[in-house]
Specification:
Blueprint: E1 5-8, E2 13-14, E3 18-21, E4 24-27, E5 32-36, E6 41-45, E7 57-66, E8 69-77, E9 86-91, E10 112-121, E11 124-128, E12 134-137, E13 148-149, E14 156-158, E15 165-167
Parallel strand pairs: 2-6
Antiparallel strand pairs: 1-4, 3-4, 5-6, 7-8, 7-10, 8-9, 10-11, 10-12, 13-14, 14-15
Bound molecules: zinc ion (ZN).
């Protein structure tokens, strides 16, 4: 927490996310404290301060498709209470452990996706839905109503309203995430 005592300036060098006062080092931000033994530097990681960082699990809406890319607007970072708003992308090769030909075959506009940030380069934030990640809430492409997991065909979703059956990259948390 902000103001937590971390050590003295005789012991450590104050690093990122800290401040020194009267020879003592305190946390300047909420986060996880780290000690770099080589540099004797104490810092506070802002990994979950609402800024995108590699390794975070995020939630967002499918906004659209470009060639080989799904565009996602991220609105939540797991374990961070506030709202966020940043654009990110899932490259076709980051969608699944299996080969995917067309991203639009496994996502629908407006679907909510659970994904991991795997790379940040300049303004481009790359997400992955490999493994257990994927769509946590899907909407029928015909009538827009929420889909349920299909009992007839594993790995697909059904619309209880119009009877449409659709493919998705389904998260293991499908229809279990409350945002
Ligand atoms: Zn429908």
């Amino acid at each position: 927490m902000i103001g937590d005592y971390l050590g003295t300036i005789e012991e450590y060098v104050p690093g990122d996310g800290t401040f020194a006062e009267d020879g003592k080092i305190f946390a300047a931000s909420v986060g996880k404290s780290n000690l770099d033994k080589d540099k004797r530097e104490v810092s506070v990681s802002t990994k979950n301060l609402g800024k995108p960082a590699v390794g975070q699990i995020v939630y967002g809406d499918v906004m659209g498709f470009r060639k080989n890319v799904v565009t996602i607007i991220v609105s939540k970072i797991k374990d961070f209470k506030g709202d966020v708003d940043f654009k990110s992308e899932i490259y076709v090769s980051n969608i699944s452990d299996k080969y995917v030909e067309k991203p639009e075959s496994l996502f629908g506009i407006g679907d909510i996706v659970e994904a991991e940030i795997v790379k940040i380069e300049g303004n481009t934030i790359d997400l992955s839905t490999k493994g257990d990640f994927g769509v946590v809430k899907a909407f029928c492409k015909v009538c827009r109503r929420p889909l349920v997991l299909s009992e007839k065909q594993e790995g697909t979703c059904d619309c209880d309203s119009c009877g449409n059956n659709e493919q998705r990259k389904i998260s293991k948390n499908f229809n279990k995430v409350v945002l």
